[in-house]
Write a structure and sequence with these properties.
By secondary structure, the chain is an alpha+beta fold. The chain has 15 helices and 17 strands. Strands 2-3-1-6-5-4 form a six-stranded mixed beta sheet. The longest helix is centred in the first third of the chain and has 66 residues, at 9-74.
């Protein structure tokens, strides 16, 4: 603030306005950037996930086709019957074997170019092996010792299973030929119709190139990296050079994948990327995509740069406009400043010309009125001094009146005792005590003990008036008497209870006054068994629509306002009333002793 003290008003205004513009435009630009960035990321996550879902659907389609082909073979009645039969007439059966059984596999191979090989393993030892290039019927003994087949052969609960990436099985061994193709294989049991045992096992191999062809053709591959992972987090797709057969951790996916579906932002090898993982039904594979965020928000960044140029130009233009407007407006203050200097020097006949009707013109007009009324104000000061003297006399008079009232009531009490009228003496004593506590030496607050004593004096007078048609019961926690409250808040409520509750009842009634402490608050409660009030009248009382209560001079709304002014939000007034039952009014406020004030 000291730095700006010697600046001109124009400099201060322009600096403040330009700062406001700079901050607002910066915040607006940042918010637009964040929204555009987040929107682009969210849209990219959705689009990339849809592309990977299409890739997944393509892989699952081939997986489902492979499984269906295995079912065709496993449930073919000719194949089942053949595997259950013993070879006796070898020449006849061998011809049937070649003409009717082998063509089943051959036809499937010709109709499904994506299938690499089909092997049928036979449990029947009497049937000779018959095979071609990549298909044929083989003895079960070839695979009984292979660990890859142990789970399906020895677990009755498994009818079929997929095997992850491995080298093709070359069961027909030829010189100079080695297994080259990487395949995934699917095995299904063939059950015997004779004894429901395992009569054979069909194995279908499909190359990873064929099964994952959709990964290479995926549009998503142009925006990032798409992998196929097996259950051991091994990369089984070779669409990205150098990653085939590697563990997912080597490409920065350590700890980022779980068994379920994933679509999140993560840092992969130091690059903020979108990581999407989608499980593939069947061979326990996952399609995983890693898409750098920079590729996604490249167009957004270009748009943001364009927006920053526009915002900067707008800032410069608005700054010039603010400077021009500020200079023009403050130039109209100069005549007023000049006139104020003349007044400071003692000239009261100064006036400022008023041309427009804006705030500056209103200031000039107010200044002219001010100089014209200075003389009137001087006279009013003199009159104010006279009024002050008069107020002092009235204050002195108000102090005399209570003493006169007390003396008069004391005289009445003395005369009534002399005339042997104890009831008159008791009423005059109660009335004197009541007014002494009501006036409270002009103080706006009093002890709760005084407030309760004042109510007792008031009830003593009213019991005489009502001819003992009601009882007053006090249930007071003695600790509460030492706390302070706004004076005269109980008497108007008790007067309401008498006038509007007990008196219309036309029978004996009871008023209960409770005072106690609860959770650091003073609670005052007035309970009467009078006629009560209907719901509409209760609503008017609570909302303050009733200006005053008859016979008391105080309305509940007035008491509420006094409590609000004295305690702020630390008070509460509750009203319960039921026609024919009675009324309960509860006041609670913060407990404070006189030393706390």
């Amino acid at each position: 603030m000291r730095f700006f003290q010697n600046w001109s008003v124009t400099s201060k205004f322009v600096t403040i306005y330009v700062s406001i513009l700079l901050v607002s435009l910066s915040v607006t630009g940042y918010m637009l950037y964040r929204q555009a960035f987040q929107s682009a990321i969210a849209q990219a996550q959705t689009v990339m996930e849809q592309n990977l879902l299409q890739t997944k659907a393509s892989v699952e389609e081939k997986v489902k086709l492979t499984e269906n082909i295995s079912q065709i073979i496993a449930f073919d009645a000719r194949v089942q019957t053949f595997l259950d039969s013993d070879f006796i007439n070898e020449s006849f059966q061998l011809q049937d074997y070649r003409d009717n059984i082998m063509p089943i596999i051959d036809n499937i191979m010709r109709q499904n170019a994506n299938i690499h090989s089909i092997h049928v393993y036979m449990s029947n030892p009497t049937i000779p092996e018959l095979y071609g290039g990549y298909d044929g019927f083989y003895a079960m003994n070839r695979i009984k010792g292979d660990s890859m087949y142990q789970s399906i052969l020895h677990n009755a609960g498994i009818q079929s299973e997929w095997h992850s990436l491995h080298k093709e099985r070359l069961l027909l061994m030829k010189p100079g030929i080695t297994a080259k193709a990487d395949v995934l294989s699917y095995n299904r049991k063939i059950f015997s119709n004779r004894d429901y045992g395992i009569s054979g096992l069909v194995e279908i191999e499909i190359t990873q190139d064929e099964l994952f062809k959709a990964v290479k053709d995926s549009i998503s591959g142009h925006l990032g990296s798409v992998f196929i992972l097996d259950s051991g987090n091994r990369i089984v797709s070779n669409n990205i050079p150098g990653t085939y057969g590697q563990n997912a951790d080597t490409v920065g996916l350590a700890g980022l994948l779980d068994n379920g579906r994933t679509n999140k932002l993560a840092t992969v090898q130091g690059t903020r990327s979108i990581v999407i993982s989608i499980p593939v039904t069947g061979p326990n594979l996952r399609v995983v995509g890693v898409f750098p965020v920079s590729h996604v928000v490249e167009k957004v960044s270009h748009s943001i740069r364009t927006m920053l140029v526009i915002l900067t130009a707008a800032l410069l233009l608005l700054s010039l406009l603010v400077y021009f407007v500020t200079v023009k407006l403050l130039s109209r203050m100069k005549p007023l400043l000049k006139a104020m200097k003349q007044v400071r020097e003692g000239s009261l006949d100064v006036s400022v010309p008023v041309v427009w009707n804006d705030e500056f013109s209103q200031m000039a007009l107010s200044f002219n009125h001010m100089t014209g009324r200075i003389h009137d104000l001087v006279e009013k000061v003199y009159k104010s001094e006279l009024l002050e003297k008069e107020a002092e006399l009235k204050a002195l008079e108000s102090q005399i009146n209570p003493h006169f009232l007390y003396n008069t009531l004391a005289t009445i009490s003395w005369v009534s005792r002399k005339a042997k009228a104890p009831e008159v003496a008791r009423i005059s004593d109660s009335l004197a005590k009541f007014y002494r506590l009501v006036l409270n030496k002009g103080s706006s607050e009093t002890l709760i003990a005084n407030e309760l004593d004042m109510v007792k004096a008031y009830l003593a007078i009213q019991k005489f008036r009502f001819e003992d048609r009601f009882d007053a019961v006090f249930e007071v926690d003695e600790r509460v008497r030492e706390y302070i409250t706004v004076k005269n808040i109980l008497q108007p409520l008790i007067e309401n209870a008498l006038v509007h509750g007990i008196e219309p009842k036309r029978s004996h009634g009871t008023i209960i006054i409770k005072a106690y402490l609860e959770d650091g608050q003073v609670v005052l409660r007035i309970i009467d068994d009078g006629v009560g009030m209907p719901a509409d009248r209760k609503r008017d009382v609570v909302e303050g629509n009733l200006v005053s209560s008859e016979g008391s001079g105080y309305a509940i709304a007035n008491i509420t306002k006094r409590l609000q002014a004295y305690y702020g939000e630390h008070h509460q007034l509750e009203l319960f009333s039921r026609t024919g039952i009675g009324t309960v009014i509860t006041i609670s406020f913060a407990a404070r002793r006189r030393t706390d004030v």
